[in-house]
Amino acid sequence: MIGDDKMKWAVIVLIILIVFSGCTNNSTSIADNNIVIHTAYDYVGKDDSFAAGDGLAAIIEIGDKKILFDTPYKDQTTELGESGFYSNMSLMNLEATDVDAVVITHTHGVNGLEKFLEKKADATVFVTSDIETKYYERDFNISPVVIDGVTEIEKGVFLFPEQEGMAYGDVVQEQFLVLESEKGPIVLVGCLHQGLENVIQAVEDEFANKNIYMIYGGFHYKFERDDQVLIEKLDYLREHNVEVVAPCHCSGELFKQVSMEYQDLEHIEVSAGVSVIID
To answer: Is there a smaller number of Cβ atoms within 10 Å at the N or the C end of the chain?
Structure first.
């Protein structure tokens, strides 16, 4: 009888373990997956094998989804006559056909969109209102999406609506992305024409109980020559509990240098060919 009781309890425990394991495997959240930001185009490459030029393009890998974040402003042609952007993607083992959605942050990120859509015509494309008006008067055979409020475009991926800024004397609308992670919100910006403070405030309003973990992208400080001004920007980020900065594109060499030397924030060096992994 004692042996039978032990066998019965062993079977019960085994059933409980199997049920629990099944529930665990089927309840994966976005926070359980690595987030990878592949910088496929930037003004500098991590080595000579990567093409570089004006603009930013990144492939965001989150869970089983891939999102293209902007396209190059000026895609440089390689010595073999190939697109620098697609050459870089190939070197990074990335395929345009694997992309599920495209986010164009502002007008400077739209130049490579038409060519991309030739490779991936069924991708969902998110643009700003000024892009829709200016660029979609011609037929791209798609209906771009313009959001009017914070929108979860994929699980754990939030697109924030356009904010007004200035670029080279012109008014420009710019939107940005936030990725949900266990370490806190990860903010991706195209050029920050709308201003750093406006972006931080919008994220803090939406994620009131979470500190921003990282900001990646173009900070548009390439014309700033006063390092004290840049230090004050980094001080502002630290005051708002940001932990990591990953500047690229239009951020400027001085800002990147000041950021590397700044003691209270982690700096990630970004260039074409670099993948930033958040685990």
So the answer is: N
